[in-house]
From TrEMBL:
Residues 124-147 are annotated as: Disordered. The keyword Protein biosynthesis applies. GO terms for molecular function: ATP binding; glutamine-tRNA ligase activity. This is Glutamine--tRNA ligase. Pfam families: tRNA-synt_1c, tRNA-synt_1c_C, tRNA-synt_1c_C2. Residues 459-533 form the tRNA synthetases class I (E and Q) anti-codon binding domain. Residues 27-337 form the Glutamyl/glutaminyl-tRNA synthetase class Ib catalytic domain.
Amino acid sequence: MSKEEPLNFIEHIIENDLESGYSPNSLRFRFPPEPNGYLHIGHASAICLNFGLGEKYKAPVNLRFDDTNPAKEEQEYVDAIKRDIEWLGYEWAEERYASDYFQQLYDWAVQFIKEGKAYVDSQTSEEIASQKGTPNEPGKESPYRNRPIEESLELFEKMKNGEVGEGEHVLRAKIDMASGNMLMRDPVMYRVLHKHHHRTGTDWKIFPMYDWTHGESDYIEQVSHSFCTLEFLPHRELYDWFLDQVHASNKLRPKQREFARRNLSHTVVSKRKLARLVEEGVVNGWDDPRMPTISGLRRRGYTPESIRNFAESIGVGKRENLIDVSHLEFNVREDLNKKATRVMAVLNPVKLIITNYPEGKTEWLDAENNPEDDSAGTRKIPFSRELYIEREDFKEEANRKFFRLTLGKEVRLKNAYIIMGESVVKDAEGNITEIHCSYDPDSKSGSGSEASMRKVKGTLHWVSVAHALPIEVRLYDRLFTDPSPDTHKDKDFMEFVNPNSLEVIQAYGEPALKDFKAEDKVQFQRLGYFTVDPDSTEDHLVYNRTVPLRDSWAKLDTGS
C-alpha cells in the first residue's frame, strides 16, 4: 500500500496487525446482514468498507447471512441483499449462512454444558430480565444456575427435538452475574422457536442468539477482522469470552472492532421503522424511491458510483454523526452530470405559438447529448410553429431580474432560435392559454450567422406540440420534513412525514424519451436528473426525478 495514502483508523488496525505478525494471506473480511428487510444507505457504507478493504488488501470478503431468527427472515430479503451488493459493484468470495453452522454451534453448546459453562434456565424471560440487575447493582443468580449437568443436557436435547414449548427453557452461558458489563451476566445462547426457517425448514427447534453465533461464525470462517457499528462495542467482551472457550492455538483468532454509524438527515434507517413505513402504506414498498434503501435509491436514479463515492467521502470514524442528505445528493449530481443524456421535457406546459413561422413546417435541429462527454454525440429534435414551454418561464410583466420570456423582450429557445414575446390569449378566468411570439429566422443556433451570435440573457427549453410525448413524471422529495425525525423523545417519527414527498404530474417530452429503458438516466434540461421507472411501458412512459439541478432545501434548512 502506498504510504502517501491517508489511512483511516480501521486501516491502521490492519496495518498494525500486519506489522505484528499477521500474514497478508490471513486477512479475511465479511459483511453479515440479517435477512429481515432491505439494505439501506447505512448498510451501503458498511458494504463499501468491508468490500473496499477486500479490494485494497486483495483479501476475500464473505457474504454471511445472520439467519438465526426465522420469525422475521425471508428468502425475498436474501435475494434483495445479494442483488444490492452486486449492483454496487462488489463480489463476495463465499456465500455463507449462520445456519450453515447450526450443528457445530449446537455441539459446542453441549460441550459448554458438560464443562459447566452453560445451563438450561427454566424461568420466564421476565424473571430473567428482573434478575439482571442494573449497571450499578449486580444481578442475582438464577435458581437453575447450578442445575446438574446431566439435567441440563437432557433438557437441552428436548429443546432441540421440539419436545418443549416456546419460552419454557433457554440455554444460558455461565459467566458472571456481578460483571460491570451487563451483557456478561449469563447471556442467553439459545431459545426455542417452532417456526419454519427459510433454509433449514423445521429441522431445528432451537436457534442461537446473535452474540453466540457472531464470533463463532467468524472463527469457523477464519475471518481476521470483524467490523461492527459502535453499538456493538459492549458486545466485544462477550465476543472474546465465547471465542476463548473454543479457540485452538493453531487457528487464527478473529477480532471485533467498531466504527461509528453514519446517520442520514431527513430519513430513518432503522429496519423496524422502515418496515412500518411499508406496512402502513406511507410508501409503496421497500423499493419506493423515497426510501433510503439501496433498492429505493436505485429506483430513484442513483448510480452505484454515486453511493460508493458518498461512502468514501464520509469515511469511517469513531463518533456517530448526522450526514446531511444534500451531501448524498451532491454525489449523484456530480456523477450524473458526467453521464446523463440531456433531453428536453416540459413539466408545467403552456402553449407558445411562433406567429411568423410557417404552418405545417418541421425542422430537425441538432442537439448535444452531453457537453461533459465528447463521445456522447448529438441527436435530432423536431421544431415547429407550436411549442410547449414551462408556464413559469413567462411573465406578462417582469422586472429586470427576470431573464426568461416576457412581452417585448428576447430569449433564445435552446438549440433553436431567438424569439420575442408579443401577446397572450387568456381564458374566461384570466389564465394564459397561449403565448404569441415572433422568431428571428437568421438566429438559428450553431448557424454561425451574425444574428445567431447575438447575446440574450435567457435560454428556455421547449417541446414541439406536434411531436410531444406525454409522460408521467414522479417528483420525489425528502420523506421527512425534520432532519432527524426519530430523535424526538416526545413524538412519533411518523408525525414528520413530508406530505409533499411525491407529486405525480403529466408532462411532455421530446421524442427521444421513448428510446430509454428502465433505469436509464437523463437530465431534463434546466430541471433536474430523472430516470426511467420500471413501471414504464411503451404506451405509458414514467420518469422519476432523482434530484433537482440545485438543492432547493438549503435555504429552508438554514432558516429552520
